[in-house]
Amino acid sequence: MKKDHKELDEETLFIVSQTFKALSDPTRIRILHLLFDGEHSVNDIAEHLSLLQSTVSHQLRFLKNLRLVKFRREGTSLFYSCDDEHVMDILKQTIEHANHH
């Protein structure tokens, strides 16, 4: 017996495709992977990953717009952390999958 399959609406399709787009970029993957450990400032991320601060800020803005990361302000610094455990679980599983090949 076949289950009725509900068609995806346009908004869902867009969000899913944007999420996979976010996870398709090596720099964004590196940033999210670093955030597995907890929150980091923009400068800290740039230093850890040997990236320009402007590159990190650009990528974090992309991830924030998709609600994959969130930030808090402390003085003049922004501290970023993961904001979507579902997507982080997908990323962890994909990394584990890649490490088993």
UniProtKB/TrEMBL annotation:
<protein>
    <submittedName>
        <fullName>DNA-binding transcriptional ArsR family regulator</fullName>
    </submittedName>
</protein>
<dbReference type="InterPro" id="IPR036390">
    <property type="entry name" value="WH_DNA-bd_sf"/>
</dbReference>
<dbReference type="InterPro" id="IPR001845">
    <property type="entry name" value="HTH_ArsR_DNA-bd_dom"/>
</dbReference>
<keyword id="KW-0805">Transcription regulation</keyword>
<keyword id="KW-0804">Transcription</keyword>
<dbReference type="InterPro" id="IPR051011">
    <property type="entry name" value="Metal_resp_trans_reg"/>
</dbReference>
<feature type="domain" description="HTH arsR-type">
    <location>
        <begin position="8"/>
        <end position="101"/>
    </location>
</feature>
<dbReference type="InterPro" id="IPR011991">
    <property type="entry name" value="ArsR-like_HTH"/>
</dbReference>
<dbReference type="InterPro" id="IPR036388">
    <property type="entry name" value="WH-like_DNA-bd_sf"/>
</dbReference>
<dbReference type="Pfam" id="PF01022">
    <property type="entry name" value="HTH_5"/>
</dbReference>
<dbReference type="GO" id="GO:0003677">
    <property type="term" value="F:DNA binding"/>
</dbReference>
<keyword id="KW-0238">DNA-binding</keyword>
